[in-house]
Amino acid sequence: MKRYGRIVGWGKVLPRRILTNHDLEQMVETSDEWIVTRTGIRERRIAGPGESASSMSVAACQEALQRAGARPEEVDLIIIATSTPDYFCPPVSSIIQHKLGATKAGAFTLVAGCTGFVYGLITASQFIESGL
Q: Does some domain include residue 3?
């Protein structure tokens, strides 16, 4: 029987600090109009003190687990896709695994830039479908 993955819980966290295009106008020679017409970006979030890839990931994971009605010990695998880990060693996936208390989970980090989410989703799907 073929196995399929599905999303049963999700969570999100955003850094508190917001940097707008108007803020950037004060720092460099640019304008809101110039940035928006070329990128569509109006603001970006900047991680502040105490906000790291692992701390934000753990908070989002806890929210996702709560929505799914699951516990950290039930997690089989943690895949994190980021180009901005806390450190290069130890990997951020292991930090998240530890902070989350996912004692039975394997964990690894994908570094694939903007496509990381897609690669992570495909990789997770392949693990589920293969039964691994």
A: no
- Cβ neighbours of residue 119 under 8 Å, at least 6 residues apart? 81, 110, 112
Same domain for 27 and 74: no
Encoding tokens for residue 4?
A: 């399929």
* CB neighbour list of residue 34: distance below 8 Å, 6 or more residues apart: none
Query: Which residue is listed with tokens 């929210």?
Result: 63
Q: pLDDT by residue (tens digit) across 81-125?
A: 999 999 999 999 999 999 999 999 999 999 998 999 999 999 999
In a domain, 60, yes or no: no
List the structure tokens of 70: 């699951």
30: domain range?
9-51
Q: Are residues 77 and 114 in the same domain?
A: yes
Query: Taking the model in full, what pTM does it have?
Result: 0.85
HEC profile for 45-113? EECCCCCCHHHHHHHHHHHHHHHHCCCHHHCCEEEEECCCCCCCCCCHHHHHHHHHCCCCCEEEEECCH
Look up residue 15 and give its two tokens.
């850094």
129 φ/ψ angles, rounded to the nearest 5 degrees: -65, -30
